[in-house]
Every structure is written in structure tokens, then in C-alpha cells.
Amino acid sequence: MGGRWKTVIPPMISVFVLLGVWYGFSARLKPSRQFLLPPPHSLFTKAFSNSRAREEILSSLILTTELALVGLLIAVFLGVSLGLLMYRFGWLERASYPVLVALQAVPILAISPLMTVAFGYGFGSKCIVCVVISFFPIPTNLLLGLKSVEPSMHDLMTLHGAPWRTRIRKLALPNALPYLFTAFRISAGLSVIGAIVGEQFFQQGKPGLGQRLIQYRVLLEYERLYATLLVSSLLGISVYLFFTVLGKRLTYKWHASAS
Q1: How far apart are CA 121 and CA 117, in angstroms?
Q2: Domain of residue 79, CATH code
């Protein structure tokens, strides 16, 4: 129980400090401008307790969750595949890294108009934005983990004549799991950001959280706007915690990072 309290209390203190800062800034605003930063309790009285607003936000949450998870799964599949290939073929690593860095550095909104020409304004274009934003950490962290095996362990595998598949399966990939789940946790938050950015640019179809943010800003419904931001953050935190728990389950017996 003591260990659980040590885990729970620090985040609770951070939340209370954040709420205190929020209340402080909201109280300092002039009454005519307080709608720009309403106090936290107004999110519940004017957004979550309002049945219409609650239904709008929850229905949009379902759409954004679907988009973020599909984009994240595609990014995981492509990232893990590319990371393994880069580890296996050195020439592919040297050829891919500049492209990965350039893809990460290019502003996604700059290439979004090109996506509309090729893929239209539908789910596919939004998913591509999500994949592009969340893809980069996965192959780079996986490659770092695969290359972090001690040389003596490779020498032992070579001494026993282990083929490449056995070396990957029993040595390099288990060693890379902590790095890989770190990448998954980073990409989990980025996938939510990518989903919201895609929804805000390709404003077609049923509104997700990204479209709701624009809608509430235009209508000056800032309580609903901040409530939508809060729900978006909780979505990212939920996916982050899922990969945290899964990573600890797979590595707690043998890796110090899971303790």
C-alpha cells in the first residue's frame, strides 16, 4: 500500500497544482475576458453536465479514437518492419535515415494539400497524417535497442553458429523491447495529435475532436473547447498507460527499467 501511495500521490499533487494555477490565471482576467479562460469547474457545469455537449464530445471521441488507433497500428507495423530491415541491412539504414529525418522535419500541413489531390478528404488522408506524425520514434528507437546488445553476447552466438533469425529472436529483439515500448509510448501521444491535426485540416465527414475544437472556438463556447481538450489529453494518456503496463508485463522479470 505504501508503494501504491507513492505512485498515486505525486500525480495528484501535480493535478492540484495545475488546477490552482488555472484558477489563479482565470481569476486575474477581467470579467469581460474571463470567457477566454473559464475556471475548471465550469467545464463540468457547462460542458460535461450538459447532455447535448456530452453526447457531441463522446461521439467525436469515438471517431478520433478509431482514427488514432488505426494510424498507430499502421505506424507500429511499418516502424517495426523498417527497424528490423535497417538492422539486417546496413545499406538500408544509411539510405533510410536521411529520408526519415526529412519526413519528420517537414511540416505536415505543408504536404497536406498534396494528400487531398492523391487521396481526397476522407479517412485515408487523415490516417496518413496520423501515421506520418507518429512513425519516426518507432524504427529509430528499435534500431537503437537492437544495436545495444553487448558484443560479448554476439560473440557467444557466433561461437555456437546461431543463424541470424535465432540471433534476432533470442538476443537482439528481447534486448530492444524496453526501447521499443518507449517508442510506442511516444508514438501513442503523437498518434492522437496526428488524428486531431488531420481532422482539423480535412474537415469532411462526421466531426471528430479536431473538428469540434474548431467549431467551439468559432462559436466562442470555450467551456466545451477546454472540455474537448481535456478529453483529447485523457485519450493520449490512456494509450500511453496501455503501452506502459504492457511493456512492464513483458520485461519486469529481467529488465531494471520495469521495476
Answers
A1: 9
A2: 1.10.3720.10
